[in-house]
Amino acid sequence: MLTGLNIQFKILSKDKMVWVSALFPIILAICIRLFAGDVVIEQSIGYVEGQLSSQQIMSLNQFCVLQSFKDRDTLEMYILSPNSDNIGILYNKQTDNYDFLLQGNELAVESEQLASLHNYLKDSSSFDALYLEAMTNDKDYLTTLLVTITVLMGLFLGSVFNAFNIVDEKEDGIDIVNQILPMSHITYIIQKSIIGFIGSFILGFITLIIVIGVNIPIVQTIILLLLGSVMSTLVGLYLGHYSSDQMVVIIMTKVVLLIFTFVPFIGFFIPNDLGWVKNLFYIVPSYAVFNGIWALVESQDTGIMMINSLFVLLYSVFASVIYWRIRRNKILN
């Protein structure tokens, strides 16, 4: 098997289309990193000068990075800075309470932290007086979406490794020899999957590290990438099976990649109150991978990551069984 893999790697290394497909998500990730910055969340708190006492400032400095600003406008600019998870504090004279400024997409995640912050400021165990003023940052939101799609593309473009390898063997007549050789269907699938799996995982991992960095829940991230790579490998097997030559596999790869990225993109913008409609998008396997990556990039929610990883696992098992039956029936016929 090692000899066969070595031959496959040598054949693919000479294919320019494979190199273009492999480098595209990496180059895109580098561009995002250069022009949009690092998406690693860095927590700090800002306040308007004169609205916090020296004792409050001393207390806050114990658990966060504290920055002062001259007025509300400069504080708002600070809150809306890209790739940050900053919190702003404003003293409300009318209610004698403290208002909090957020970007608007972390309200549920930050509730416990804000409760503690409120207790620091008011010296009260009550959370009733807390007022959250949500602010929107479209640039940061779209950057997160672009990062998610880029990592998704990195994973699924790895499918070209085994897809092109299978098509190359068809064009050279090696596929006919493989059907004659005493090789089990499982052995053939494993042999053709290894190169696609390695390519998908490396592309997805490199892309993810470039745009996010290493400050991530590593175990959950590895599980999601591994399962996503398995799904990508299966896509490559299907592409190779139903493609007769390189021109066909190029066209089919473009179509599949468009579906696997565009459909989750549409499902993402469906309102949350139409949950049953959003759930329909799980018919497309890449939607679960997309949601898992989004949860990682946007909030590092490991619970959502694991739920979607389970969906990817179920898709992979189902697709593996179907492909095995298709391959067996082809040999028998």
Comma- or semicolon-separated keywords:
333 residues, alpha/beta, 2 domains, five-stranded mixed β-sheet, 14 helices, 7% strand, elongated
Short description:
The chain has 333 residues and is of the alpha/beta class.
Describe the structure.
The protein is α/β, with parallel strands linked by helices. It has helices at 2-13, 16-36, 54-60, 72-79, 107-122, 138-156, 159-172, 174-180, 185-212, 218-242, 246-268, 275-280, 285-298, 302-332; strands spanning 45-48, 66-69, 87-92, 97-102, 131-134. Helix 6 (138-156) packs antiparallel against helix 9 (185-212) and helix 13 packs antiparallel against helix 14 (302-332). The radius of gyration is 25 Å and the shape is elongated. The protein has 2 domains: 2-37 and 140-332, no CATH class; 45-136, no CATH class. The model is unreliable at 38-42 and 124-139 (pLDDT under 50).
